[in-house]
Specification:
The longest helix is centred in the middle third of the chain and has 15 residues. The protein has six helices and eleven strands. The chain has 211 residues and is an alpha/beta fold. The radius of gyration is 22 Å and the shape is elongated. The protein has a single domain, classed as Rossmann fold (3-Layer(aba) Sandwich). The N and C termini lie far apart (68 Å). The strands form three sheets. A five-stranded parallel sheet has the order 1-11-6-3-2, sandwiched between helices. It has a four-stranded mixed sheet with strand order 7-4-5-8.
Length: 211
């Protein structure tokens, strides 16, 4: 196919433009600077506020024993008979296997699932999850309720901070899948009516353990 001289001229100008560096319109928004003000203190409160705004449920625990007690109380209140967890670090650290409702079957029969997370993003109330976690890709979205156990050192201010920490943690080789979850699954695609729990859990809890 023969290209007209006019088109060839346009393509030549495009190629020349792409070969040259382009000055960013807002250079201060890149690099180590952030367009958002970083808050080093109060990340727990900021995350709790944003997470609750997105219909997530936040539970602050002063230690491991308080987490176990809160989890047992919640399970009794919700009448959960089977809560599934396949994360060895959580099972060992909190002795979850001693709870009567933990791992009484497989994930297909569970009332709720417990997983860890990579990081918590305070500015947006977001949980960062990856395929590298023992829970894999399916468990966080399979059961009706998702319970996340995290530590205060996993709190970061912005998504950019979380990505940078992931790169450091995995030596530049990011997991095959990274997902960002902010509260329960929801959609308003049908007649602009908000429906919760369509593509994932209807309820999401974050238990934040103070170290």
């Amino acid at each position: 196919m023969k290209i007209s001289p006019a088109k060839e001229n346009i393509l030549k100008r495009v190629r020349n433009a792409l070969s040259q560096s382009v000055q960013l319109p807002f250079p201060n928004s890149e690099g180590n600077n952030s367009v958002f003000k970083t808050e080093n203190e109060g990340l727990e409160l900021k995350f709790a506020e944003e997470f609750a705004r997105l219909q997530g449920k936040f539970i602050y625990c002063t230690g491991k024993q308080e987490l176990t007690e809160n989890l047992a109380t919640l399970a009794a209140h919700k009448e959960w008979n089977h809560v599934y967890c396949q994360t060895p670090a959580l099972l060992n650290a909190f002795k979850l296997a001693q709870l009567p409702f933990i791992n009484k079957g497989d994930m297909h029969e569970a009332d709720a699932a417990i997983t860890d997370c990579e990081y918590l993003v305070a500015r947006t109330g977001t949980m960062v999850l990856s395929a590298a976690q023992p829970s894999g890709r399916a468990l966080p979205v399979y059961t009706p309720v998702h319970l996340v156990i995290a530590y205060t050192h996993q709190l970061v201010f912005d998504l950019k901070d979380a990505i940078n920490r992931l790169k450091d943690r995995y030596n530049g080789e990011l997991p095959s899948a990274i997902s960002f979850a902010s509260g329960p699954s929801r959609t308003a695609d049908i007649e602009k009516t908000l429906v919760v729990g369509v593509h994932g859990p209807k309820e999401v809890y974050v238990f934040l353990v103070d170290e």
